[in-house]
TrEMBL record:
A GO term, aspect molecular function: iron ion binding
Sequence intervals crossing the membrane: 6-23
Protein's UniProt name: Cytochrome P450
Binding locations of heme: 449
Record-stated family: Belongs to the cytochrome P450 family.
Naturally occurring in which organism (per UniProt): Acrasis kona
Cofactor: heme
PANTHER family, per database record: BIFUNCTIONAL ALBAFLAVENONE MONOOXYGENASE_TERPENE SYNTHASE, CYTOCHROME P450 FAMILY 4
Keyword line: Heme, Iron, Membrane, Metal-binding, Monooxygenase, Oxidoreductase, Transmembrane, Transmembrane helix
Keyword Zinc tagged: no
Pfam family membership, one: p450
Length: 509
C-alpha cells in the first residue's frame, strides 16, 4: 500500500470513529424521550442534509418548523424533540404548562449553561439566575415596577409620541419603516423611563465624549442587547476572545456599553436622593433595600439587572408594536373601531395622561390579540431536575422542557378560529372564555415578566398617538400580493422588514 492509501484509510477510520461516537451520543439522548411521540434527528439544527437533517434546520425560522411538527406529531400537549445530543420535550397544553410553570415550578428551573448564560454579559441577573440568587434580584427589583414608575412610563411615552408624531414624522404622507422606527421609539422611552437619560435614539447623537467612547450610548447598548447576545449563543468562548476582527469589534461594543452603564450608575449612586427627581428603573433599583437586613443589590448586580431591563424591555415591545401595526393596516375595520375609541379619549387634547389608559380598553384588546398570534417571545426553556410524568409520559431527569406559547395560543382545541385576528375575544364580556393558562405571552408563575405593565402601558399610548394622527395602510404592492411579513427569529420574533403607508389625518370631525 502506498502512503496516500494509508493516510486515506486512517482518515476514514477516524471519521467513522467520530460518527459512531456522535451517533452513540444521539442514541443516548434519543432514548430519554423516544417513548413520547415526536421527532428525532442525528444532526444538530444546522444545515439541511438529506436523510440526516430530516426535520429541523436553519432554512426557515425554527419556531415555525416546530409549530408544523407539533401540529403533525404532538399528542396531548407534548412532543419529543431530539437533535444530536439534546433531548427535549415541547409542551403546549394549559395543563402541562400549569404543572411545569406554576405547581412544580421549583422542580423546573432555567437551564443556565445551555441557554441563559448568553445573557450574562455583565454577570448573573434577574433573567438568568435560579433559586435564592434569583429571589434576591426579583425581590429588590419588584419595587422598581411600582405605580409611581408606571406613571412615569405613561408620561414619558406620551411626551415622546407628541414629538414623534409632529417632528420625527413631519411629513403628511410617507412609507414608514416600522421595524426601524418602533425600535428607536421604544429605545428612546426605555432610556428615559429606565435610566433617566435621553439616549437620542431618534436622531444620531454627535455629542458623545470621543476621548472615552468609540460609539454612541444608543449604538453600544442596542448592539450589546442584540448582536452580542446572539454571538454568545452562536460561538464558543475561545472564539469570542480571539483576535479576529469581528470578535474584536464585539468586545469593543461591550467595553463601550460597560463604560456607559458605569457612568450612569455612578451618577445615580452619588446622588443623595435620586428619587426626588425621577422614578426611573435605575434610581428605584439603587434605592431598593431588603426589609430585613437593609442591604440592596451590589453595584455589579445593579449593572447586570439594568442591562437586562434594557434587553428584555425594548425589543420585545417594539416587536409587538410591529405586528400590531401590520394587523391594523390589514384589518381596516378594527383600525377604525380603535380610532373611534382613541379620538373619544383624546377629545381636544394633544397629549394623554396616565389615567386615560383605562379608557383605551379596545386598543388593549388589539395589543393582546396581536400577542396571541405573534408572541414576541415564542416560549421559554426549563430543565426537569427530577423524574416526572406529563400527559401520562415519563419525563426523565435532565430533559429540557420547551414551553411553547406560540403553539398553545394557536391551538384549535383551545381557540375558536385560532388563525384569525379577533380582538373582541379579549373584551371583558368575552374574557371569561379565555383560560389565563392558555394565554401567556408574558410567561406565568413566579418567573412571569416583571415588565408586563410597563410594556402594556407603553404600547397602548404609542398606538393611541399613532392612530390619532395617522391612517395606516398597506402599500399597493402589499395589497396585491396578500403580504405577510417574513419573520426573523433571534431574541424576539419580529418582521424582517415592514414598511407601511402612513397618511396624516387632518380632519378629525
Ligand atoms: C411585549 C413586551 C414583553 C414581552 C412579550 C415579555 C415577555 C417576557 C417573557 C416571556 C419572560 C420570561 C422569560 C423567561 O423566563 O425566560 C419575561 C421575563 C422578563 N421580562 Fe419581559 N416581556 C416584555 C416586556 C418587558 C419589559 C418592558 C421589561 C422591563 C422594562 C421586561 C423585563 C423582564 C425581566 C427583567 C424578565 C425576567 C423576570 C424574572 O425572571 O424574574 N419585559 N418577559
Amino acid at each position: 500500500m502506498n502512503t496516500i492509501a494509508v493516510v486515506l484509510v486512517v482518515v476514514i477510520m477516524i471519521l467513522a470513529f467520530i460518527i459512531i461516537m456522535y451517533y452513540n451520543k444521539h442514541l443516548e439522548a434519543r432514548s430519554k424521550v423516544s417513548h413520547i411521540p415526536g421527532i428525532h434527528q442525528f444532526q444538530p439544527i444546522i444545515l439541511k442534509i438529506p436523510f440526516l437533517t430530516s426535520h429541523i434546520n436553519l432554512k426557515s425560522p425554527i419556531y415555525l418548523q416546530i409549530y408544523d411538527l407539533i401540529r403533525k406529531h404532538g399528542r396531548n400537549g407534548v412532543m419529543s424533540i431530539s437533535t444530536w445530543k439534546t433531548s427535549s420535550v415541547a409542551i403546549f397544553s394549559p395543563e402541562n404548562i400549569k404543572h411545569v410553570m406554576v405547581k412544580y415550578a421549583k422542580d423546573y428551573p432555567k437551564p443556565q449553561e445551555q441557554v441563559y448564560e448568553a445573557f450574562d454579559i455583565f454577570g448573573p441577573n434577574i433573567l438568568t439566575t435560579n433559586g435564592d440568587i434569583w429571589r434576591k434580584h426579583r425581590m429588590l427589583s419588584n419595587p422598581a415596577f411600582n405605580d409611581d414608575h408606571i406613571k412615569l412610563v405613561s408620561k414619558v411615552t406620551n411626551q415622546t409620541m407628541v414629538s414623534v408624531t409632529k417632528e420625527y414624522w413631519s411629513h403628511d404622507s410617507f412609507d414608514c419603516n416600522v421595524v426601524e422606527d418602533m425600535t428607536k421609539i421604544t429605545l428612546q422611552i426605555m432610556g428615559i423611563a429606565g435610566f433617566g437619560r435621553d439616549m437620542k435614539a431618534l436622531n444620531e447623537d454627535q455629542t458623545y465624549d470621543r476621548s472615552k467612547y468609540t460609539m454612541t450610548f444608543r449604538e453600544a447598548i442596542s448592539r450589546a442587547a442584540d448582536e452580542i447576545i446572539i454571538a454568545r449563543f452562536r460561538y464558543p468562548k475561545w472564539l469570542l476572545n480571539s483576535p479576529l476582527p469581528y470578535f474584536k469589534n464585539c468586545r469593543e461594543v461591550v467595553r463601550n456599553a460597560d463604560l456607559y452603564l458605569d457612568d450612569i450608575i455612578s451618577t445615580c449612586i452619588n446622588d443623595s436622593d435620586p428619587l426626588s427627581k425621577n422614578y426611573d428603573l435605575l434610581s428605584l433599583l439603587v434605592a431598593a433595600k431588603d426589609e430585613e437586613n437593609k442591604t440592596g443589590l451590589s453595584r455589579a448586580e445593579i449593572k447586570s439587572d439594568s442591562f437586562i431591563f434594557l434587553v428584555a424591555g425594548h425589543e420585545t415591545t417594539a416587536s409587538q408594536l410591529m405586528w400590531s401595526l401590520w394587523l391594523l393596516a390589514k384589518h381596516q375595520d378594527v383600525q377604525e373601531k380603535v380610532r373611534k375609541e382613541v379620538n373619544k379619549v383624546f377629545g381636544d387634547r394633544e397629549e394623554l395622561v396616565h389615567e386615560d389608559y383605562d379608557g383605551l380598553q379596545y386598543l388593549l384588546c388589539v395589543v393582546k390579540e396581536s400577542m396571541r398570534l405573534f408572541p414576541p417571545i415564542n416560549g421559554v426553556v426549563k430543565v426537569a431536575t427530577k423524574n416526572d410524568v406529563l400527559s401520562g409520559y415519563k419525563i426523565n431527569k435532565g430533559t429540557i422542557i420547551r414551553v411553547n406559547f406560540y403553539a398553545m395560543q394557536r391551538d384549535p382545541e383551545i381557540w375558536d378560529r385560532p388563525e384569525e385576528f379577533i380582538p373582541e375575544r379579549f373584551e371583558s364580556s368575552n374574557a371569561d372564555h379565555v383560560d389565563p393558562m392558555s394565554y401567556i405571552p408574558f410567561s406565568i408563575g413566579t418567573r412571569k415578566c416583571i415588565g408586563f405593565q410597563f410594556s402594556l402601558t407603553e404600547s397602548v399610548f404609542i398606538l393611541a398617538h399613532i392612530l390619532r394622527c395617522f391612517h395606516i395602510d398597506l402599500t399597493e404592492e402589499q395589497k396585491k400580493s396578500n403580504f405577510v411579513p417574513t419573520p426573523r427569529q433571534f431574541i424576539t420574533i419580529k418582521p424582517k422588514e415592514l414598511n407601511l403607508q402612513f397618511n396624516r389625518i387632518k380632519d378629525r370631525s
